[in-house]
Design a protein that fits this description.
By secondary structure, this protein is mainly α. The chain contains 14 helices and no strands.
């Protein structure tokens, strides 16, 4: 018996009373519907971050990654040092490029002119070194027989030779092993020479690239700073970069003063090639840590080739001059150019050389100037506000 559907009945009630005829019945072969929240069952609880296995695994992976980074940095240490030196020189030479651009030159030609000047300066130093070295060495070799004869006529020297059996010891030292070691030393010296030339050329090329792309590198670095602090960071960084440029100007002034002093000394003593030796000392003085000593050794060797007295006078002169330069000239020049106190300049130079060698000697004074600027402009105002 059919139940009549009235107008007041809702469609849902009507459908419940009279199910639609075209609704298919479930087949026996149809797959069962998945039960639960997922097709493959309910997921388990997540791994605990305090799980000992997980902590040990992550710690081991971290140690392996850190050790891999350490090995990579150690293997690339020499290249990284060259890159750092080139970047530092590019920062220091950028004010010269800016000055050339102010005179109307585009950045590319300005960088080319400055790079050409640096190459000519280095070539001038090399060509100034070769003639006195070759000439004085040849004279020294020619004077060796007469020097030996004068020693043989000395009774005191003959007595010492016989007492300590010097001739037999010299003959025993001149064997095949000694010759092999000498050849190994020559090969090592040649390797050091060519390695030094390669490093110098690499630094020059990197300096040219860094100077050409200096503005892009700087703007890329500023883009990594949040916009709210970008203007202040830009001002502070530009001031620090100007300190590096002032440091380079001061270092060049000290090198020129060393070369001028050497020229006057060579003229007074009567050394050969005084201007060439002055150029060599000035170029060597630009090398941190060992440059001044290297120039002094070269000039002293030329002096010893002339006479024993002249060589001793050269040693005494450079010993006194280096002390004056390290503790009087250098601090005063850096105080005027970089605006760093005498005590801070000397202390920073000594600590930089002792801790990081050549790199420390390069960045010591600019780093002190940067720290003073940050303390004065950032740290002190924040301390006053608290």
């Amino acid at each position: 018996m059919e139940v009549p559907v009235t107008a007041d009945d809702s469609p849902a009630e009507a459908e419940a009373v009279h199910p639609p005829a075209d609704d298919p019945e479930p087949s026996a072969d149809a797959p069962e519907e998945p039960k639960g929240p997922g097709q493959f069952g309910r997921p388990g609880p997540p791994l605990s971050r305090r799980n000992p296995f997980l902590i040990g695994l992550l710690g081991g992976l971290g140690l392996i990654t850190a050790y891999g980074i350490f090995l990579g940095l150690r293997n690339a240490a020499s290249i990284l040092v060259l890159i750092f030196i080139a970047l530092f020189l590019a920062i220091g030479l950028n004010p010269a490029v800016t000055r050339l651009r102010a005179w109307g030159l585009p950045r590319g030609p300005a960088v080319a002119v400055l790079a050409l000047g640096i190459v000519l300066l280095l070539c001038g130093g090399v060509f100034a070194l070769v003639p006195p070295l070759v000439t004085q060495t040849g004279q020294l070799i020619q004077n060796v027989p007469s020097f030996i004869e004068s020693l043989q006529r000395n009774e005191t020297v003959n007595d010492l030779v016989q007492r300590y059996d010097v001739l037999s010891k010299v003959q025993s030292a001149l064997n095949a092993g000694t010759v092999t070691n000498a050849l190994g030393g020559v090969v090592g010296g040649a390797r050091l020479l060519f390695g030094t030339i390669f490093n110098v050329l690499t630094v020059i090329v990197l300096v040219i690239y860094f100077m050409a792309a200096f503005d892009r590198i700087k703007e890329g670095g500023y883009a990594l700073v949040p916009r709210s602090r970008r203007d202040r960071v830009r001002l502070l960084t530009d001031e620090i970069l100007s300190k590096v440029g002032a440091y380079m100007v001061g270092a060049i002034a000290i090198a020129v003063l060393a070369g001028l002093s050497t020229w006057v000394f060579a003229m007074i003593v009567g050394l050969a090639y005084p201007f060439a030796l002055a150029v060599v000392v000035a170029v060597c003085d630009l090398i941190p840590q060992i440059g001044a000593t290297l120039g002094a050794v070269i000039v002293s060797l030329v002096g010893f080739a002339s006479s024993l007295t002249t060589g001793i006078v050269c040693l005494v002169f450079f010993l006194i001059y280096q002390q004056v330069e390290n503790y009087l000239i250098y601090p005063n020049v850096m105080r005027r150019s970089v605006k760093v106190s005498d005590v801070a300049a000397v202390t920073a130079a000594l600590l930089g050389v002792g801790l990081f060698g050549v790199i420390g000697a390069l960045i010591a004074i600019p780093m002190v100037a940067a720290i003073q600027l940050i303390v004065r402009e950032v740290v002190n105002p924040s301390m006053e506000e608290k």
